[in-house]
Amino acid sequence: RPADISTFGNGNEKLPVLVWGNGACANTPAEHVNFLNEIASHGFIVVAIGPAFEIEGFTPARGSESAQLTDAIDWIIEQNNDKESPYYNKIDEKNIAAGGMSCGGLQALDISSDPRLKTVMICNSGLFNSSNANTAVPGMPMPAKESLRDIHTPVIYILGGQTDIAYGNGMDDFQRINHVPAYAANYSVGHGGTYGQPYGGEFAIVATAWLQWQLKNDAADRKSTR
After folding, report:
1. Quick one: how far is CA 165 from the chain centroid?
2. Residue 129 predicted with pLDDT over 90
């Protein structure tokens, strides 16, 4: 979140939300900290699965589940309505996005029917089909391609070009989606994206512009995303 949230709420702008699932179904967003911090710095609150840094005496679970993204939405809404919370009345409950990288992208797709979502952001990911489902890593959520019909919001795919192992799946999803606005962006860096680069690299620029457009209705970012 932004370091200073005192100006949010109380009749002023509130914080839109991104709930985030991690690559490899990891129970920590450690590999995405630069990327997520950059998004948050533009006036968003990011709730990612698992602790971002090692906590003494705490051993996080080895894997994560799609339901943790739903839990994240539940939690931040509870905080928004809890007078004892630092986030009380500062959260924009009508502007929530689900996103994730690789397995985390599958998790975001798995909860994409949640009516509280305003947009979905799928990074280096896409649903498997019957011909390549056997290549999925055990533990990944495996919604059928038909579940793409459950997406009720605009959706963006941010992929790493043809060397991205998820490129085929992601582009296949994109070509199948014809009932909601969909956008596909490719930057030829492979499956690892630019998350670890300073400020999250090029992926963060596109992701932030998309979220500014979808969750804040920013006209300038609408033009830059297109």
Report:
1. 19
2. no
